[in-house]
Design brief:
Low-confidence stretches: none
Number of helices: 16
Structural class: alpha/beta
Number of strands: 22
Strand order of the largest sheet: 12-15-16-11-10-18-19
Helix content: 40-55%
Shape: globular
Oligomer: single chain
Bound molecules: nicotinamide-adenine-dinucleotide
Radius of gyration: 26 Å
């Protein structure tokens, strides 16, 4: 139960405040390098036995964890809402459901996905090759505050299903949901050392990647992602960095305007816009701009913002106060350059002591404004009018980020064509946000939105070392040496040249 705001963080503890009313929810310790290292040692010890289990068995055991989480999903949703400020429905739909889907899908399929892959050798038909997948060891997961379960625990589940142990550093803003899930993990009878949680600030994340981990999966800002990638490069360990987004939302002339408007509003304001895949800039064709914009404003004004613990609320709190400053800065910049606040535009307190920002629609926005160029990560929906769909594509690609994008059109073939022209990791046609909830599909950014991928069969394989074995197809005891081994001679040289020229026939 939340207590009144009083406690302050110290070097040893983090005090977790609820963004709903500023009250103290709990406190957690700050892990030092020494403590992080000790956790990694425990994880290594547990990992050896875990890696020796067949993937099917690992899946079976993790499903017990999932079941305990699902049995108590209401309590988890309540806690996520309390520490993160999203609505309870969002907590269930985006957090619990994503985690459960990841465990279910990979729990059932990891044995197939991680099966050795054979390779036909065109240049050595007498030999054969295969690649097999070996767990890496201990994977460090550094997570953001916007989806404390879906990201932190979803990635931990994938790392475990690939045969690794996981040490997770949740965000200092929302560490409690991961600790709750860890309790369920231990109750499920899994070795508690397989999944370790180290709470703390950025320094604890840094300690994790300096420790004896074999890979880092990081999700967060571009600025931190650069530091992580550089540090992993120095250590020569692989990393996945999932970073910011500035998703363009293209409304073509032939779009179903009602669906497009509803999707733009849902995509912009879900989780108070604190989603890397949020609708961050709309490009609407001039011919349909008026109808679309009127509908967007109408729908936005109908949204109910308030205490996210109540069920009849659509928009909750702003998790991290800094996002309110970003929203303000971007609105001021846009208005000073000629944009209009069509609705919203203010921070307010539907719950005393809470952090809330009204869902805001900006019209008359142009590409030079900060709100069209920099990540907002808050509830702003800027609308830019374009004269052609080609212009929309060109402006959509005029960004340093490329995580998600959306195209709305009745012509699916055109949607596909546009999707392929966008410099973006995932493009959805006539839909928004939901692709992170498809564990089968890859989630990744291009440009400065990241390196590597999570989810998908390839994403699971990336959590393993790929090792190659090459062997003869049959045993020929009389073959003492291959023709190209020593001694070398003019005859061998000519033979090699003649053989190479045969390639020209192919
Ligand atoms: P952040 O980069 O501030 O922090 C992310 C995590 O990194 C936190 O746990 C933090 O403590 C840790 N950290 C900070 N400095 C560190 C350092 N030097 N070494 C190691 N760890 C360090 O990001 P945030 O504010 O928590 O999250 C918001 C950002 O995350 C947004 O830009 C958003 O777009 C992005 N995000 C991306 C995705 C995606 O899938 N691409 C998903 C969610 C959020």
């Amino acid at each position: 139960m939340a207590q009144p705001k009083a406690k302050q963080a110290t070097a040893e503890t983090i005090v977790v405040h609820s963004p709903i009313d500023g009250s103290v929810v709990d406190e957690v310790p700050v892990f030092t390098q020494e403590r992080v290292d000790a956790e990694i040692v425990l994880a290594h010890e547990a990992q050896r036995a875990w890696a020796a289990l067949p993937p099917k068995e690992r899946g079976r055991r993790l499903k017990k964890w999932r079941d305990l989480v699902l049995d108590d999903a209401d309590a988890l949703a309540e806690l996520v809402t309390l520490e993160n400020g999203k609505t309870r429905t969002e907590s269930v739909l985006a957090e619990v459901a994503t985690f459960a889907q990841v465990v279910t899908y990979f729990g059932r399929r990891s044995h197939k996905i991680l099966k050795p892959r054979s390779i036909t050798l065109f240049s050595a038909p007498h030999r054969t090759s295969y690649v097999h997948y070996v767990p890496r060891g201990v994977i460090g997961i550094i997570a953001p505050w916007n989806f404390p379960v879906a990201i932190a625990m979803g990635e931990a589940a994938m790392a475990l299903l690939a045969g690794n142990a996981a040490v997770v550093k949740p965000s200092e803003i929302t560490p409690l949901s991961a600790l709750w899930c860890k309790k369920k993990f231990d109750e499920a009878g899994l070795d508690p050392n397989l999944l370790r949680i180290v709470t703390g600030y950025g320094e604890t994340g840094s300690a994790l990647l300096q420790g004896d981990v074999q890979m880092i999966c990081f999700t967060g800002s571009v600025a931190t992602g650069r530091k992580i990638a550089a540090a992993c490069g120095e250590r020569l360990i692989p990393c996945i960095v999932e970073l910011g987004g500035k998703a363009p939302f293209i409304v073509c002339q032939d779009a179903d305007l009602d669906r497009a408007a509803r999707a733009a509003v849902f995509g912009a304001f879900f989780n108070s816009g604190q989603v890397c895949a949020s609708t961050e800039r709309v490009y609407v064709h001039r011919e349909v701009a008026e109808g679309f914009t009127t509908r967007v404003i109408e729908l936005t004004r109908k949204l109910r913002q308030g205490d996210p613990r109540k069920f009849d609320v659509d928009i909750g709190a702003i998790t991290f106060d800094r996002q309110i400053e970003v929203a303000r800065e971007q609105i001021d910049d846009a208005v000073s350059k000629g944009a209009t606040v069509a609705t919203g535009g203010e921070a307010h307190q539907p719950v005393e002591g809470g952090s809330f920002f009204q869902p805001t629609v900006l019209t008359g926005v142009t590409q030079d404004m900060k709100v069209a160029r920099e990540e907002t990560f808050g509830p702003l929906l800027p609308i830019l009018v374009v004269d052609s769909e080609e212009e929309a594509l060109q402006l959509a690609n005029d960004s340093h980020l490329g995580l998600m994008g959306y195209v709305f059109t009745r012509d699916i073939a055109k949607g596909k064509r546009y999707a392929e022209q966008l410099e973006i990791g995932t493009v959805m046609v006539n839909d928004v946000l939901s692709s992170y909830a498809f564990p089968e599909a890859p989630w990744m950014g291009v440009k400065q939105s990241g390196l590597g991928k999570v989810h998908s069969a390839d994403g699971l394989r990336d959590l393993c070392q790929e090792r190659h074995v090459n062997l003869p197809k049959w045993w020929l005891p009389s073959t003492r040496k291959d023709p190209h081994w020593h001694p070398h001679s003019r005859k061998l040289y000519d033979l090699a040249l003649r053989a190479l020229r045969l390639l020209k026939r192919l």
